[in-house]
Design a protein that fits this description.
The complex is a heterodimer of chains A (about 425) and B (about 240). Chain A is α/β, with parallel strands linked by helices and about 425 residues long. In chain A, about 35% of the residues lie in helices and about 15% in strands. The termini of chain B are far apart. Chain B has about 240 residues and is an alpha/beta fold. Chain B is globular, with a radius of gyration of 17 Å. The chains are: A alpha/beta (about 425), B alpha/beta (about 240). At the A-B interface, helix 7 and helix 12 of A face helix 1, helix 2 and helix 7 of B. Bound molecules: zinc ion.
């Protein structure tokens, strides 16, 4: 689908080189992968660089509140016939600078599979002329700093109106449907939605949505669930012809089967049949540490990231049954959002029967939350202490954003 | 007391539950049950009538558009006003606090009528959004320990002569009027800008609501160890510069 690659202008070449140099300096200084700083330097030298880099590629954008990093990875694998076919911001640097850096990475690539922060989707979709955009879900996240959820859907809707990309969107999330339905070219996927508390109100008119079974409809204005052509059904993908393809993933949980379903629909648009796409997705194990199982102190610690109520809900549905021990860790630093009220939107009563240890900067918020939920717990001072208190075997460790990074460091991931 | 039943009504979770507001409901419910009370919790969606026979009504915070819709529907329904006339207790937070007052400014920039259950009037602030931990001294008439909470709002609420400020701010902004007041109350109706959720950080306020509803002076003690530990941590945090 991509046109003939035009050579980069001298200015763009310089920008790419300067960006790479800055990234190398940043890496050498021990500041992470350096992809963001590299992208920033490059963008400064050539503000159009993002568009220029993207013009050589079939670009697929992925955005959502939850699952965008994993889905980006699944789509990248599904499209990858040869190792150099795909460039991607695989480590989740999902704002324009990080995206620029990722796109500058491979000169022989055919596809750019790009995770985009929700707030930047409209702008990036305008700059890079994507061939496809996957929209998975929208829910409350980091409320004291992010835009309100419905405002975000409205922003997507305005930004995507008339965009010629193929939009692959979740028919089960009313906010996503609202965002996507102004676009001329949409494929609806029944990807499911476990968390419903951000979509009781009709995004169109404010009426109360009726939600019988899996359906949803606004009685006031008639805004309703579109008929999907792809669907997740148990552990199968149903394609538009009604054929069922088994999902085999190394990643756990319903949410990842939903991500695989969306990824199969995207891959099909680029000529990759569902069977091939799903087979390729099997290669994906951990994504930036998520779902990794780490041996630590004679235990197997599974690292699970849950950043917001919808994410915690999906995570509870995939952990081992009691008596599997659970470690919970919550911080409230800048990247997490500094308000911990969202803990009360999470049904921690579902952890009854698991031995629970709580850690993290905000372990006392967790303690009160669990006390009110009526489940037993222990407060520990460190990940090391929490693991030590658990019996040998598998431990499910669930943490929000910066707490997850702390946890990875603590167990040597 | 074990044969008493406490009816706790959560008003419009579909519109006013953006900031973990369910927490206030859960704390009241839990602490009443720990005292051997039978609790009947009723969640009322905005397309359902508000029952008039509840003992405690809890109203949460919400985004600007849901706030407008909630106020329209509550005014039209009339159930909450009748419940208050019957002596019910109301505890409301942020957007809910503005709605139970006389008037607020909605998402369209228009002045919109509230329920007039509390003598307060709200406008939109022109300054920076108030975000962060708050520490305040409760109105001495309430004889309660210091108020700790997390604020996140742009509203400015003026307290009229028919109500009293709920607290005096030591750290944080509160009502945003610049006079150091936070929240408001009359004998049965309470409003605050505090999230947290506020009753999880101030369980004594939850107990006060239960006592007012049952018309008793005291409740049997419960284990407040973790609440106290959290309070101490958050009070210390509020006094640190960010
Ligand atoms: Zn509608």
């Amino acid at each position: 689908m991509s046109g003939n690659p035009e050579p980069l202008s001298p200015r763009a070449k310089l920008a790419v080189t300067a960006g790479k140099a800055a990234a190398a300096v940043s890496r050498a200084a021990g500041r992470g992968s350096g992809s963001v700083i590299g992208g920033r330097v490059a963008l400064k030298l050539d503000p159009d660089l993002l568009a220029r880099l993207a013009s050589h590629l079939d670009v697929i954008l992925v955005s959502a509140t939850n699952g965008k990093t994993t889905t980006t990875r699944l789509i990248a694998e599904a499209l990858r016939a040869e190792p150099e076919d795909v460039v991607s911001n695989a480590l989740g640097a999902n704002m324009p600078a990080g995206i620029t850096s990722a796109l500058a990475g491979g000169s022989r690539a055919r596809f750019g599979v790009i995770e985009v922060d929700e707030k930047y989707l409209s702008a990036v979709a305008r700059d890079v002329t994507p061939k496809a955009i996957a929209l998975l879900n929208l829910s409350r996240d980091q409320l004291d700093r992010a835009a309100e959820t419905r405002m975000l859907a409205e922003h997507w809707r305005e930004g995507l109106a008339g965009n010629k990309a193929l939009i692959v969107a979740n028919a089960d999330d009313p906010l996503v449907v609202w965002a996507a339905s102004s676009s001329p070219n949409v494929v609806w996927v029944a990807a499911g939605q476990e968390w419903k508390d951000d979509a009781w109100s009709c995004p169109s008119c404010g009426g109360v949505l009726q939600r019988p079974g899996d359906d949803w409809v606004c009685a006031e204005c008639g805004f309703r669930r579109p008929t999907p052509t792809w669907a997740l059904s148990g552990d199968h993908v149903l394609d538009p012809h009604g054929s069922a393809w088994p999902i085999r993933l190394q990643l756990p949980g319903r949410a990842n089967r939903a991500n695989a379903t969306t990824s199969a629909a995207v891959a099909a648009a680029f000529g990759v049949p569902p069977q091939t796409a799903l087979e390729r997705m099997f290669a994906v194990t951990a994504v930036a540490g998520r779902y990794d199982v780490v041996s630590y102190q004679g235990r197997e610690v599974r690292l699970l990231l849950a950043k917001n109520p919808a994410g915690w809900l999906e995570t509870f549905s995939l952990i081992d049954a009691p008596p599997a021990p659970v470690i919970l860790s919550v911080n409230a630093r800048g990247a997490d959002g500094t308000d911990t009220s969202w803990l009360w939107d999470v049904d921690y009563g579902r952890l009854a029967g698991h031995p629970i240890c709580v850690i993290g900067d905000r372990k006392l918020d967790l303690a009160v939350r669990l006390e009110v939920a009526g489940v037993d717990f222990q407060v520990c001072q460190s990940a090391e202490e929490a693991v030590r208190r658990c019996p040998p075997g598998r431990i499910e460790a669930i943490a929000n954003y910066t707490a997850f990074q702390d946890l990875r460091r603590a167990v040597g991931n | 007391m074990s044969d008493s039943s406490l009816r706790v009504v959560w008003v419009y979770p579909d519109l006013l539950s953006t900031y973990g507001d369910q927490g206030n409901v859960l704390v009241v419910e839990r602490r009443a049950r720990q005292r051997g009370l039978h609790v009947q919790r009723v969640d009322v969606r905005s397309d359902q009538p508000v029952p008039t026979s509840g003992d405690i009504y809890l109203i949460g915070g919400g985004e600007d558009r849901p706030q407008r819709l909630a106020a329209e529907r509550l005014v039209r329904d009339g159930g909450l006003q009748r419940a208050v006339d019957n002596g019910a207790i109301v505890f409301s937070v942020c957007a809910g606090y503005q709605i139970i007052g006389h008037e607020f400014v909605n998402d369209l920039g228009e002045r919109q009528a509230g329920l007039g259950l509390l003598d307060v009037t709200s406008v939109r602030g022109t300054g920076e959004r108030c975000v962060g931990d708050v520490l305040a001294d409760m109105d001495e008439n309430l004889r309660l320990p210091q108020l700790t909470g997390f604020e996140n709002h742009q509203g400015v609420t003026h307290v009229g002569p028919g109500a009293r400020p709920l607290a005096r701010v030591r750290f944080g902004r509160g009502n945003g009027t610049g006079d150091g007041t936070e929240g408001a109350w009359n004998d049965t109706v309470f409003g605050t800008y505090m999230h947290g959720p506020v009753l999880a950080r101030n369980p004594q306020i939850a107990d006060l609501l239960v006592k007012l509803a049952l018309d008793v002076n005291a409740l049997p003690p419960v284990d407040d160890r973790w609440y106290e530990a959290l309070r101490a941590e958050r009070i210390a945090a509020a006094t640190q510069p960010a």
